């Protein structure tokens, strides 16, 4: 008789598989207030690694971290007309503080453009103060009617960048730089996810932006996930908050702005990109634990060898963890590390000591082989880079295999509802076509040029729309 | 005529000096909602360095990071009687979400013992799950009637550790380990602040704790600042949330718990410990910028040399910043770096190029000297360690000089109101004496043993009370 699977198989019920994995790999739990989540230590260690990698790239792009209050006077939200319309259905409102009813209600930030512009308008005086490049790591709240852990939660963790520039061109180029050199570089080269870089349609833009750049990834079930966005805000917030500067020529000018963010939603994207029926598969460059060294049994010689191997690999610069919990059956621990998606397991038993070998199990391509202990420190970095490349290749292959070229709205909707993406000339869709697709819960994920670049305008000739169902 | 001072002198008005420094060194601004603050990039970079140093020590102590929701059902707070009494006057309450009035009001976490115990009670089943050692970096809200930036703000950033143990002894030892190996080690060896480690009196304990360990520092005006606390919670929250485990002997037992936290308040402590009339002085081991290399004038040879020196120092492992903003007058930039407390300034002008020397200005002891460029990479690490030691020595000397040994309540109150600390036998104070001192806004900061150790009990013979005014 076959063993009962640890997770609901993907093919049987993908959303259920996702929920099973999140629970059994101990990534997160639902919070007591509807739509909130508890990020458990292993899930949080994935987010910490994302933060480290992103933070380095953000600093490399010249932005500095700061922190703005999460409480925003309600009146601030209403200063930019589209912004308030976009966000007011999602707000959490504080009406009481320190035992008293407040004179003015306070909202918990859904995003920080308004409060940040209040300060930018004080800090920016002359062209010498520009560009002003700020980032913050914070929690935000957007009330969710249909929450799903990591993907749509009422409170989530993110970084939000906010910048002010002297010219339109400068702001445009910076939004594109973040899109490409920070976000795409991280997602492709660290997460191993083959994201498509594109431009949102006017309908799908951020509330208050003149242009939104997006990164879209195909999940294991063929749906799309928006992994991050970078916005050109034009002078919309600058007008609302009077954020202006004295130019080199002595004129008072409005600043041009950008904002950009990625969130804990990326953890959901990671799971649904690389997970399989045995659990998560974490790309080695991201992995908080790249290699786990397991003692099969608890005798002293085995434990000593496990520690020795662990130390040696740590010295070789590998993120390694020892598993010497031999009072828990070996099989259960092996399944647990498989669920958690640690790329390499090294299993050490009494017989291995004589032969100076260990069993090396690879989570990403699968398979096991006997390896000489002496060879590990040299072998493993190569193995990890191979596995990193494999995940990216699989992500690319899936997207290519499940993307169809079509010309009609009907075909596009069919491809999307069948669990794939459609590429269709944007001229054949337009705002009306978008509305029609929306009735079938299908959206234009982004616009790209014929050769796959990011279009400069909404209606450049030859623009292609990428159409899909999305999380 | 003497130059007008940049800051209000400390001796003239210490609180005003503090506020001036916070503004002029661009550390923080007041937020739009009363009691909140905007932490500006330079202020935030101090906090980031604190986080890095603390996070490494917390992980070394075996705790793992996680994240719990900031929204807590109001009913949770009421489960532990002392806890709700302590915190309810300070709560911010969310009554509306997603455009609707909520059925049950939600509080924004003032601290997370309650919500964390809700999960600990699910995660802990057997003795094998213990100890459970969790930390989170988060924002919390405690409504403030008399806010002061960094020191008392309605929203602040902190880390809060929460642990569960099988026995009283285990929990007690872990709270003490955090107190000593994480907090004191960081504050003494990185912040350069000569903290006193002690035990809080029953009156000053955390709401819900059976014992609170504290770290108290003397500020520049002789007042005390509580820099951090580590609590033994006993089984109080375990009872309220039924957090129990199956022991090795097969019995169901309550867990013993600890919690511990330090916050952005430490930035205030840093300022008031080490600042002087010219601004902040940042201890080198903490400093986000240890050395700034300034171009006095903008000619190309000077700028090239500045960059060359910067690269060389970076290679030597020094955290270095280049200041080539030569369109701003040199004097203004020098004052700005002095205000920000960067330990070493290296000033490069055209004449220095010929002599292969630079001017080295030291912020901490003061003074300038001509130094050969070749000697810098070897000289600077020594200079920085000297400065680190000097700050700690000054902090210690101040505390010793301004602490008086007394025997009566009257003398203790006099010493405290004169701007110093008093040491008085705890037997001469007691709960009644504490109440009497409180009328003069004087508190028992902590209890210590005769030889300066942390007492094991509230009323051990020979216990000494440290009495002061406090922030």
Automatic annotation (TrEMBL), chains A, B:
Please state every residue range assigned to the domain named Aminoacyl-transfer RNA synthetases class-II family profile. 34-283
Matching PROSITE patterns, A to Z?
AA_TRNA_LIGASE_II (PS50862)
Q: Which Pfam families match?
A: HGTP_anticodon, tRNA-synt_2b
Q: Which reaction does it catalyse?
A: tRNA(Pro) + L-proline + ATP = L-prolyl-tRNA(Pro) + AMP + diphosphate
User: Entry's SUPFAM superfamilies?
Assistant: Class II aaRS ABD-related, Class II aaRS and biotin synthetases
Is Transport among the key words of this record?
Answer: no
Q: Which InterPro entries does the entry link to?
A: aa-tRNA-synt_IIb, aa-tRNA-synth_II, aa-tRNA-synth_II/BPL/LPL, Anticodon-bd, Anticodon-bd_dom_sf, Pro-tRNA-ligase_IIa, Pro-tRNA-ligase_IIa_arc-type, Pro-tRNA_ligase_II_C
Main localization is: cytoplasm
Q: Name one GO molecular function term.
A: ligase activity
Q: What is its EC number?
A: 6.1.1.15
Subcellular localization(s) per the UniProt record: Cytoplasm
What the protein does? Catalyzes the attachment of proline to tRNA(Pro) in a two-step reaction: proline is first activated by ATP to form Pro-AMP and then transferred to the acceptor end of tRNA(Pro).
Q: Provide the family line.
A: Belongs to the class-II aminoacyl-tRNA synthetase family. ProS type 3 subfamily.
Q: How does it assemble?
A: Homodimer.
Q: HAMAP family given for it?
A: Pro_tRNA_synth_type3
What's in the domain note? Consists of three domains: the N-terminal catalytic domain, the anticodon-binding domain and the C-terminal extension.
What is the official name of this protein in its record? Proline--tRNA ligase
The organism is Streptomyces sannanensis
Lineage of producing organism: Bacteria, Bacillati, Actinomycetota, Actinomycetes, Kitasatosporales
């Amino acid at each position: 008789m076959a063993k009962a699977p640890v997770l609901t198989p993907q093919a049987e019920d993908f959303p259920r598989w996702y929920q099973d994995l999140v629970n059994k790999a101990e990534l997160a739990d639902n919070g007591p207030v509807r739509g909130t989540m508890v990020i458990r230590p292993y899930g949080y260690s994935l987010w910490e690694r994302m933060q480290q990698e992103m933070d380095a790239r953000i600093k490399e792009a010249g932005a500095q971290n700061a922190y703005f209050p999460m409480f925003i006077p309600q009146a601030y939200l209403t200063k930019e007309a589209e912004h308030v319309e976009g966000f007011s259905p999602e707000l959490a409102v504080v009406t009481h503080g320190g035992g008293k009813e407040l004179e003015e209600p306070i909202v918990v930030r859904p995003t920080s453009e308004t409060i940040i512009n209040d300060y930018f308008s004080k800090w920016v005086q002359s062209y010498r103060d520009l560009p002003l490049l700020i980032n913050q790591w914070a929690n935000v709240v957007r009330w969710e009617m249909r929450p799903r852990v990591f993907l749509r939660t009422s409170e989530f963790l993110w970084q939000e960048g906010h910048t002010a520039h002297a010219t339109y061109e400068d702001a445009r180029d910076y939004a594109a730089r973040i899109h490409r050199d920070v976000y795409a570089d991280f997602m492709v080269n660290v997460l191993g996810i083959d994201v498509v870089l594109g431009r949102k349609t006017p309908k799908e833009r951020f509330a208050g932006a003149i242009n939104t750049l997006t990164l879209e990834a195909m999940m294991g079930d063929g749906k799309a996930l928006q992994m991050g966005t970078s916005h050109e805000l034009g002078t919309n917030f600058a007008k609302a908050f009077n954020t202006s500067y004295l130019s080199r020529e002595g004129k008072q000018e409005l600043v041009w702005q950008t904002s950009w963010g990625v969130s804990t939603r990326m953890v959901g994207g990671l799971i649904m990109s690389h997970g399989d029926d045995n659990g998560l598969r974490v790309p080695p460059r991201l992995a908080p634990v790249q290699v786990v060294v397991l003692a099969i049994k608890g005798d002293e010689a085995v434990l000593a060898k496990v520690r020795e191997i662990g130390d040696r690999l740590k010295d070789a610069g590998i993120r390694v963890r020892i598993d010497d919990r031999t009072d828990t059956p070996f099989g259960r621990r092996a399944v647990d590390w498989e669920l958690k998606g640690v790329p390499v397991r090294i299993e050490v038993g009494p017989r291995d000591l004589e032969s100076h070998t260990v069993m090396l199990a690879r989570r990403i391509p699968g398979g096991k082989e006997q390896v000489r202990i002496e060879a590990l420190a040299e072998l493993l970095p190569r193995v990890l880079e191979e596995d990193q490349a494999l995940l990216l290749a699989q992500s690319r292959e899936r997207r290519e295999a499940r993307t169809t070229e079509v010309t009609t709205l009907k075909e596009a909707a069919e491809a999307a509802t069948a669990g794939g993406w459609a590429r269709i000339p944007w001229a054949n869709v337009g705002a009306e076509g978008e509305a029609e697709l929306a009735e079938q819960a299908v959206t234009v994920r982004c616009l790209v040029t014929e050769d796959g670049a990011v279009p400069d305008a909404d209606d450049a000739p030859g623009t292609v729309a990428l159409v899909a169902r999305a999380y």
